[in-house]
Amino acid sequence: MKLSLVKIKQLADHLQRLSVLGSMTLSTCMAHSGDGNWQERSCPIVYGGGRTMWHFKQTVELPAAWREGLVTMRFDLDVPKDRTACEGLLFVNGRRSFGLDRNHKEYVLPEDAVRGGTLELEVEAFAGITENLYQFKAPQVCLLDPMMQELSMWLKNLAEAVECLELHDPAHYKLHDLLHDACIRLDLFAPRSDSFFSSVQSALEVIQGGLSALPRDGFAPTLIAVGHSHIDIAYLWTIADARRKSVHTFTTIMALMDQYPEFTYFQSMPQIYAYIEEDAPDLFRQIQARAQEGRWEVEGGMWVESDCNIPSGESLVRQFLHGMRYVKEKFGKSCEMLWMPDVFGYNAALPQILKQCGIRYFMTTKLSWNEVNDFPHDTFGWVGIDGSEVLAHYISAPERNLDVYTYNGFLDPKSVWQTWENYKSKAINDHLLIAFGHGDGGGGPTAEMVESGRRMAALPRLPQTKFGTALEYFRELERRVRLREDLPSWKGELYLEFHRGTYTSQAKNKRFNRQSEWLYREAELWGAVANFHDVRVLERLADGWKLILKNQFHDILPGSGIPEVFEDSDRDYEQILAIGREVLEAGLSAVASRIAADDEPGIVVFNSLPWDRGGWVEVDGRTLWVDSVPALGYRTISWKELEAWSRVPASASVGGAWSISTEKMENELIRILFAPNGQLLSVFDKQANREVLAPGEAGNVLELFEDRPIRNDAWNIDYDFPLKRREVTELVGVQVVFDNGLRGAVQFTWTWNRSTIVQKVIVHRDSKRIDFDTRVDWQERQVLLKAAFPVDVQSAYATYDIQFGNLQRSTLKNTSWDEAQFEMCAQKWVDLSEGGYGVSLLNDCKYGHDIKGHTMRITLIKSGIYPDPLADHGDHTFCYSLFPHQGSWHTAGTNREAYEVNIPLQARVMESGGSSGGRDLPKEYSYLQVEGEHVMLETVKPAEAGNGVILRFHEYGNQRGPVTVRSARPIKAVEAVNLLEEPVSPLAEADAFKMGEHSLEFRVTPYQIRTFRVVLG
Ligand SMILES: [Zn+2]
Description:
The chain contains 21 helices and 56 strands. The protein is α+β, with helices and mostly antiparallel strands.
């Protein structure tokens, strides 16, 4: 007969209770609700009422007999499960000591505090973001028996280990025998008697002796455990709440570090460190000291754990630039790892961005959330569109009650065992990583987890666990798998088959983000051109960028936060745009003030794109046509000249082909016909002599879908969304609103339910591009709005613009992988082309698309109801454009067209005043010209440090070849740099370049990003 595991676990619990040798209950406390008016109250004390901060205090005199013992304090703040951010912070003798929440209720008093005997206790309790009331229960001070605690932990952990081991494993029986023997020794006839205490000691000896005598087979996997807390800086709480959570969490970590010298902790996100620096400078210094010691790991690379679908390539670069600069400055180290446990898909440009930032490793758990397909590897080489490769590893720790991996792991035998069981790459590696600790809203590891972790290495068969750092883990992993020929690789994006609604939710944030990205491009570019190296300007830009980066956090930009999160981000964007506009204006005026002006009054038009272009400009409240502005340069034009261009008589403009009416819009290249309900009946390409739309189908169909995902409302669009479909057809108004022979606009107004959609369809001279300039007053909930274009094009794949490049995705449903990608993310454009002809769909702030079969759709509005019940209610402004073309998207210039849709020409009224007084610039000028049709000059910015201008190019045609950059100003020096603006080794052949007096020549490979620091004369 053997004691059952159930009985043994019961004994462990019983011992835990018995280990309390004495306790004191504090039946009263002084309390106040934030007004400083302390009053004595009996516990439990009711507290709460929405965003209030409560204070409780009491003085405790420890009995003399306790002052050498193990003394703990227990607090119960009645913290609910519903993540309302209700939590507290304990101060002992005026010192910030421990974070109190649902999982952290017991604080082990440090020895010096116990010896001192008098404890001034104060608890600061935040009552959460709801109006709910809670109870501050009577705190307890307990004297514990360490040996009983120790035995209890052993029994619990060993019993759990036995449960993990299979019945055919001899270790299962050996461990069970050991537990049985120990428990039989335990004399519970007279608890706390002398014979009981000596039986505890003898049981412990049985276990310790037995474990060391067990044979080691030498084949157990190894596992590095690192403490961690996922702190969403905004989600079901606001940034202010997350700042408080961070202080609480890190205080707890410090206490655990004092208590357990082997305990290590990992924390990403410089943004959080910057908050701590401000909110708790003493805590920040403690963190710096622990980091110095190597026990607190500062890693992760990015400024925040950013969304990776929506931010532009340049934004992602800045995440690393600002993130890693901060870590260098405050912690004196660089980062080697991208830590992205909880982000909703990873774009195919990331491996190259990582490589060029010196990041070698990538960690996530999120791909295990795939709805349909099991991602085949947990350790692999992740290869980007350009061929760059980083080592990727998924932490495979089990999420309790869900069949997915987690970054909020437990540390106990079951968790480490399942981490190994789950791990899909056993054939190539048996060295694993676990990040343990409570998270999403902070909290972090508990003492119990660390206690378990301490024992794990002694348990046979289970992964041999030790505390360590994630970087140490990755370096060892790399050493083990680097030379293996069977290390699998995965090329392209890591698409998450889940959370596809995050490309669209909270459209306002997506729009602000896009606007900010372009505004900062312009501001930096004209700032660099105007020779800004003023430290203050650079600091302003850095401040603005950090706000942009913060708002790209993976529950802000994806739209998955509570309403207050977006109220905060509105304020941030106001500031972001103000800074950007201020720097831009200063840059433009600095350039304009140097242009030799005529007596003839006029305007100066700036073009920040590296090719000559014409376009519409808004100036003095008027929209005017400018026929050509030099690449990355400007042109001055007199009012007289402008008037002449803008007054082209309709009939004369394009040989009579021009016609704008509510039934038909036509220019020399294209003719579109409208149905009575406003949809497109026909889009005829006159140049190609063919219809663009599929036979019998209408275009620009505004489609509505019932959008009630099973769960995660703001995050998800479910597979079955097309089943309930309606069309917007109730046209209540149509009129020609503009026609000057160069541009014509017909405005359609539809209503649907309580919403109104007003759309200007715009046709331009000399262009096949049709713009749909749209304003929506949206009053629906859980309804998805898309615009559909069924086109007469046959192709098995479509092309999607992504960060620093593009990729192809299937239009078929042949495989489960194709099928699972029923909603996809793109940056500025998507394209569906067959041999010789195709159609591109461009946008100025939208991301969600689906192209299956021959229908191209762009997702416009989502409007989920959780966590924001009124998400996307109200005004929307956006533009999408249909661009039918001959040839491929590349030869037809889709990419350039998309930049032009996004980045308008800038015009300013010129001050007249002769050519004297520093007016040394000509009337028309091109600063830089790029020869290389497939290469984009993405960024021109002042260098972060020192003089010089940073020029960043990226290849987008999947093509290699030479690039020549011509500069009007003499080039004094050139240096190839990485994305962090550090010089790259000149030895690498790929980094070679040739500098001329006014030119820079280099080569690119497909999708390569190249950055140079250039000093101009
Ligand atoms: Zn998260």
